[in-house]
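Worked example

This section walks through a single chain of length 445. The input is the sequence exactly as stored; nothing has been trimmed or padded.
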Amino acid sequence: MSPAHNRPPAQRRRVVITGLGAVTPVGNTAADTWAALTAGRSGIARITRFDAAACNVQIAGEVKNFEPARALAVPLHPRRPGADPLTHTLMPKDVKKFGRFTHLGTAAAIEAYADSGLDAHRAALDANRMGVNLGVGLGGLPEMEAMHDTWKAGGYRKISPFFIIQIAPNLLAGQVSLQLDFRGPNMSVASACATSGHALGEAAAAIARGDADVMLAGGAESTVTPLAIGAFAQMRALSQRNDSPEAASRPYDADRDGFVLGEGSVVFVLEEHEQAVKRGARIYAELCGYGASADAYHLSSLAPGAEGSARAMQAALDRAGLKATDIDYVSAHATSTPGGDGEEAAAIATVFADNKANLHVSGVKSMTGHLLGGAGAMGTFAAVMAIHDGIVPPTINLANVDPVCAATGLNFTPNVAVKKPVRAALANSFGFGGTNASIVVAKVG
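Given that input, the structure is written out below as tokens.
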């Protein structure tokens, strides 16, 4: 057993965010994604990944102009001495081995790693204490659909030997750990739309208890496919505003008619605070609170008043040692569904009853659509950048606030970003099965 695994359990250690990566419907980098969010630009358009003409839902938040094997501006050297440097997010010869969710997630993870500055310090860092927790909600659904058609048409000999690698959800975490030589805890969470919220929380917990010093954490999803769009449409969960895609996702608006499916990935470098300070890292924020709960009420609907969601939020605040009045921004789950937005708003209003005058709430799914397994990380990204830049991104398409939402007395940051100091923020993600995750991030003084 290596010395790293013989260390005694540590007292709860502080966890900070030192790297960000994003590939989303509004940008292929973290910087481009944030610029779009603060400008209120939508990434939702008519579907191009398949012919959706026969479906009553023909819109989605697709990642555009993405190159899975894009060259890195500066080669990275994360692996053993003498090993070849990392020059691309994926080597061109490896693209066909992996599913699209792995393409997206790997690009975001490599960007986050490069952004963190860890590569320059690898000789002094123990790879056994660097881990990965990258969640995926549905895995390689596009590849499943395509390979099923291939098998039906051509038989067993036509099945790709890469098929299992393409679809298995944990292969994203495995590929990232291989590329970056991260030999610590390696796992993949799958908890529907709370997936990457849980991945962030559990990765932070691994650092806090002393199991790792660095964790790459977040999530990815790519399910803009006939079966996924068709299935959600059959559930009557999706917006049918096909003639005006950019206006289709409209959290809290009285005219909302469902969510818009999106794809993408957001990944964070989480790091033990003292190590980050010692190496002079740029610190975006501290991940200081995490709450998880279950509604135990319904498989696809929030509990009345989002009671389970409120418990997750309060648990995250308690873990962070903060009061509701310390939070300046809530990055809400806010999917744009007729029922869910009002229930979550009621829960936020309950938890933050003493802080409504100061609190801003917004839903960035109004611009990106719903990234499913990547949604929790997407919402946390908005919270982190709000702290870092002092800008709260807006809820766009909010023309006529639903009376049920308006009755909560919350400020949903309609249509235009707000510049304000953000000391601390909370991000929500909730998923089918009644699973809830809340993350609290705060400015490091």
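What to look for: Residues 1-10 have pLDDT under 50 and may be disordered.
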